[in-house]
Amino acid sequence: MFVRRLMTTSFLLLIGSTFCWAASIDSGLYTTYTTDGAKTTLSWVVCGSVGGGEGCYGAGQLGPFGQIGSILENAKVEDIREGTVTRFLYVIDQAYGSGQNGVAVYVYQRVDTIAGSYDHTEFTLKKMISLPLVGGSQAVVFLAANKGYLVLGTSNSTVPVEVNKHTYVVTQLDDISQTPISITADNYGYVTVTSANAFFVVGPDGLLREDGGRSPFMINNLLGTQP
Predict the structure, then answer these.
(1) Helix count (H) and strand count (E) of the chain?
(2) Is pLDDT of 4 > 80?
(3) For 16-73, what is each residue's pLDDT tens digit?
């Protein structure tokens, strides 16, 4: 009885390990993005391999925008039973509105439906949020995020903002009230807003964790950070 129970336990552990390391159903796919010269449209193409097939599976455009300032993608949610992979894409328009100096975030839901050796990709605009920031064609947009929040600012605004990804509530982050020179993030959900001589850190829960008079920044395992 003991041996049989031990063998069953080992088998279950092996199965669990296999599931943990199983590849995502879209792991062979990749998406490239391009913009037009004025950065008013965002074009996308999905290529790669899936289900034994290989090639490009879909293409399209998002927009128009006043001027795209930054783009960020959310972590994906996979439904193996339905064969879908869902994620959100956040496009920051830095020339929003009639004056072309407003800032807005466009929230798109992307759903990839994978069946056999075919992938169908669909983007749907879910929300557009006007932000209390000053943009313009010459502005620099700073953007980082964690699981629950976007943190963004511009070179023309002294107070950056935080956007809740679930409720879309916008909160002004006036901890230091200085124009940011960078917004960086690590792999644990911490975001640092840095100005010329001050900084503050936002935690995974969206709350202030630290501030000070230096100019530190964060690094992660995806993108290089210029000091």
Answers:
(1) 1, 16
(2) no
(3) 433 445 678 999 999 999 999 999 999 999 999 998 889 999 999 999 999 999 999 9
Render 125-153 in DSSP notation, one character per residue. Answer: EEEEEEES----TT--EEEEE-SSEEEEE
Pull the structure tokens for residue 218: 């964060």
Q: How many CA atoms lie within 13 A of 217 on its CB side?
A: 16
User: Distance between CA 136 and CA 103 in Å, rounded?
Assistant: 8
End-to-end CA distance of the chain: 62
Classified as helix, coil or strand, 203 is coil
Q: Are 141 and 152 in contact (CB under 8 A)?
A: yes
Closest to 73 measured CA to CA, from 62, 94, 88: 88
Q: 9-31 pLDDT, tens per residue?
A: 444 444 443 344 567 899 999 99
The set of residues, in sequence order, having a beta carbon less than 8 Å from that of 20 and lying 6+ positions away, is none
